[in-house]
Design brief:
One of its GO terms (molecular function) is transmembrane transporter activity. With about 280 residues, this protein is mainly α. It has 9 helices and 2 strands, in the order ααααββααααα. Helix 2 packs antiparallel against helix 3 and helix 2 packs antiparallel against helix 8. It is elongated and about 80 Å long.
């Protein structure tokens, strides 16, 4: 048997390259490190022998007031989400209407409020809505925080409407055909068959919208609402406007919003994995 002069290729076993060690700091440890840095700065301030309050002492002193303002932020976000969800559900169903005129008008309203800047909408509501209204000889005051809530509810309405439309469209068309074969009307099909199936599809994006609203409520400070950011500025001014207090005070506000919104983010991701539609 003759052999040729060509060499045969030899396949060697694959050996992966050694993994490089890397350190990754998650959001929660980073927040803890930020708070520890504030405490370390306060300790150094106390050791320096200064007669003024340290940053940590200032935060502890004013924390009841600041946390009350943060609770006001949460209240505004919850009310805005409630109003926006109710209005968004109706607007989303109007987007799915068989009437072309109603669907077109609803589409224009949805696109306008979805793409309008939130701060501009807030200014429009704050300055165009009167500070009081009279109904049947009864004067009803409209404080700034109520108008701010309405201003935040408008973009929520548009985003929830789009979530409702997308969730209903994602239901297979066979569900409509089966309901029609059982003599269900369109309204019965929507409320008894489609919307119950859409809840698990709408819940994760709905929670994402709420987290965005909760973080955006600080915009109310620009129009004079006494929420956490407004109170933080007032506390900073009350302490003499010391430059070394700027980062700790606003860092405390940042930490409060992070500790509130980050669990919502984790819960949303868990629901997305649990309710994943294949």
């Amino acid at each position: 048997m003759k052999t040729t002069g060509h060499r045969l290729a030899v396949l060697l076993p694959y050996r992966p390259a050694p993994a490089r060690m890397s350190v990754r700091i998650g959001p929660l440890p980073a927040a803890i490190l930020c708070f520890c840095a504030i405490m370390a700065a306060s300790t150094a301030w106390a050791q320096a022998g200064s007669t003024t309050l340290s940053p940590l002492q200032v935060i502890v002193k004013w924390s009841p007031l600041l946390l009350r303002g943060f609770a006001f932020n949460i209240l505004i976000s919850l009310l805005a989400m409630l109003l926006g969800t109710i209005a968004g559900l109706g607007l989303g169903l109007a987007l799915l209407s068989e009437s072309r005129l109603l669907a077109a008008v609803s589409w224009l309203v949805t696109q306008f409020f979805r793409n309008a800047p939130w701060l501009v909408l807030l200014f429009f509501v704050m300055f165009l809505v009167p500070f009081q209204i009279t109904l049947f000889k009864t004067t009803i005051p409209l404080p700034d925080w109520i108008k701010a809530t309405v201003g935040f509810a408008l973009p929520v309405m548009a985003n929830v409407a789009e979530v409702v439309r997308g969730a209903v469209r994602s239901i297979p068309s066979t569900q409509w055909e089966a309901a029609e074969s059982l003599s269900f009307t369109r309204r019965q099909t929507m409320w008894l068959i489609m919307l119950p199936q859409c809840i698990k599809r709408m819940l994760p994006p709905w929670m994402n919208i709420y987290a965005i609203v909760a973080m955006s409520t600080v915009l109310a400070s620009i129009v004079g609402v006494s929420e956490m950011l407004t109170l933080t500025a007032q506390v900073h001014a009350a302490e003499g406007g010391r430059p070394e207090l700027f980062a700790p005070l606003y860092g405390f506000a940042l930490l409060c919003f992070f500790l509130y919104c980050y669990p919502i983010n984790l819960w949303t991701a868990r629901l997305e994995r649990r309710f994943r539609v294949r």
